[in-house]
Amino acid sequence: MKKPITGLLLIFALFAATLATAHVVSADYTGPNRHSHQVCGAPHNVYYVANGLHRYMCTYKNSCGDTPDQGVTCSQAICDDLDAGLPYLSVEDSCSTVTDPPATADASFQCGTPGNNGWCRGGANLVFTANEPVSGYVISAIETDLWGYVCQPNTASPTCTYDPGNGTGTVAFWAESTYGDSSTQGTVSWKVDTTAPVLAPSMPVPDGQNGWFVTDPQVDAGGSDATSG
Question: Cβ distance 64 to 214 under 8 Å?
Answer without folding.
Answer: no
